[in-house]
């Protein structure tokens, strides 16, 4: 059999996903396995035991990232790595993150089945606390790994009960010894459910991911004057909410002005005093702008600032807008994007480009090594929800793409 004909075992992948999903299974069919809990330890132990059964050696770093290695012919080469995370949201699903880890494991199992050697080693990784639900910041393990923040910062992060990451890692036995980031990576791939509706809407099986949207977050406060809703004529009001709604509409307009990847969202609004017969005196709201290139995101940034200034001048109300978070767009390395695209061609998959609107560990690995992602559809585009669902045949197709993308890199590096 030629390597091009090689296929993963979709039933084995599915049954491993279902078995892992038993740990922390919820009544509604989801999973609650928060980072560094006893359940996370059980999940980690299970995946590590599968890795050992597949003949892999295990390395754990100081932030609890786990690397499972299948040797290559040339151990001096940096590994071709794939993985994701196995922690979940409190009302999470079976596939977010878990699919990326178990698809990578399935690639190794398939290579074992067929006694296929690769030039570079293959590694399966799972990163600590990607979800950021119990401990902030999100994407903690991969973030420490790439130096986005320090190990000390991560260790000091506390959950609502005051327990720290450092202590909890120690407690569950996953505080390793390797210095984060000192683990070479030749190339990194991550398979993931799309977490959006684009693939399903277009009836495509594989999303080739050219990159991840950058985001710019703002807090906006409009200050007006509270007054009685009855006695105060329309022309004599300083209605903070009326002024704020103009800005909110412009946020959406800006998102629409830069298709296909422009996004403009107001997701959080607080009205003061929030009383039926009082003209609102103050409105606080969030602004979330996203796009795929730094230039477009910067244009959107300038436009919202200019609009706010103009609105303040026109209304005479004080308006503050402060940028509170910024992640630049992350274009993936063309070598990895091409490897994914070529694999879809080899396999004859229906495919389209889909940018990622959500954060993933691959954003951080991309700072250190060529990285790429593969998306598969999820039902109704829903994730971070117990009803999150995906079709076995789509998961298998994504895993086959991963197999061939990794094989191309592992033989060539
Ligand atoms: Zn995820």
From TrEMBL:
Q: Which Gene3D superfamilies match?
A: 3.30.70.360, Zn peptidases
Q: Which SUPFAM superfamilies match?
A: Bacterial exopeptidase dimerisation domain, Zn-dependent exopeptidases
What's one Pfam family here?
Answer: Peptidase_M20
Listed GO molecular functions? hydrolase activity
**Keyword rRNA-binding appears in the UniProt entry:** no
Q: Which InterPro entries match?
A: Amidase_Cbmase, Bact_exopeptidase_dim_dom, Peptidase_M20, Peptidase_M20_dimer
Kindly provide the name given to this protein in its UniProt entry.
Zn-dependent hydrolase
Domain of life from the UniProt record: Bacteria
Q: Which residues form the Peptidase M20 dimerisation domain?
A: 214-311
- Coiled-coil-forming residues are none
Q: Does Transmembrane count among this protein's keywords?
A: no
Q: Which family does it belong to?
A: Belongs to the peptidase M20 family.
Keyword set, alphabetical order:
Hydrolase
């Amino acid at each position: 059999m030629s390597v091009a004909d090689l296929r993963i075992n979709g039933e084995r992948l599915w049954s491993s996903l279902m078995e892992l999903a038993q740990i922390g299974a919820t009544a509604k069919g989801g999973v609650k396995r928060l980072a560094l809990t006893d359940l996370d330890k059980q999940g980690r132990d299970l995946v590590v035991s599968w890795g050992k059964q597949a003949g892999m050696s295990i390395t754990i770093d100081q932030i609890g990232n786990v690397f499972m290695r299948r040797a290559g012919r040339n151990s001096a080469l940096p590994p071709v790595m794939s993985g994701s995370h196995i922690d979940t949201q409190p009302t999470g699903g079976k596939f977010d993150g878990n699919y990326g880890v178990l698809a990578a494991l399935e690639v190794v199992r398939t290579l074992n089945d067929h006694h296929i050697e690769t030039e570079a080693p293959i590694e399966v990784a799972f990163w600590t606390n990607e979800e950021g639900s119990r401990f902030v910041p999100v994407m903690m393990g991969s973030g420490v790994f790439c130096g986005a923040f320090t190990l000390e910062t991560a260790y000091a992060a506390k959950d609502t009960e005051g327990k720290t990451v450092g202590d909890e890692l120690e407690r569950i036995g996953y505080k390793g010894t390797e210095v984060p980031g000192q683990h070479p990576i030749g190339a990194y791939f991550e398979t993931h459910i799309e977490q959006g509706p684009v693939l399903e809407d277009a009836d495509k099986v594989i999303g080739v991911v050219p990159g991840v949207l950058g985001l710019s977050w703002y807090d906006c406060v409009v200050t007006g004057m509270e007054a009685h809703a009855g006695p105060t004529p329309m022309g004599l009001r300083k209605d903070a909410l009326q002024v704020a709604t103009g800005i909110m509409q412009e946020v959406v307009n800006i998102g629409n002005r830069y298709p296909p990847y422009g996004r403009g969202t107001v997701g959080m609004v607080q009205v003061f005093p929030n009383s039926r017969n009082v003209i609102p005196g103050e409105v606080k709201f969030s602004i979330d702008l996203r796009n795929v290139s730094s230039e477009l995101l910067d244009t959107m940034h300038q436009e919202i600032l200019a609009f706010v200034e103009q609105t303040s001048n026109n209304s005479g109300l004080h308006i503050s807008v402060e940028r509170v978070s910024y992640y630049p767009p992350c274009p993936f390395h063309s070598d990895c994007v091409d490897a994914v695209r070529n694999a879809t061609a080899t396999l004859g998959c229906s495919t389209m480009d889909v940018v990622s609107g959500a954060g993933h560990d691959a954003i951080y690995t991309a700072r250190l090594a060529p990285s790429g992602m593969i998306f598969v559809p999820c039902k109704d585009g829903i994730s971070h929800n117990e009803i999150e669902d995906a079709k076995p045949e789509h998961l298998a197709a994504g895993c086959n793409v991963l197999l061939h993308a990794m094989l191309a890199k592992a033989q060539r590096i």
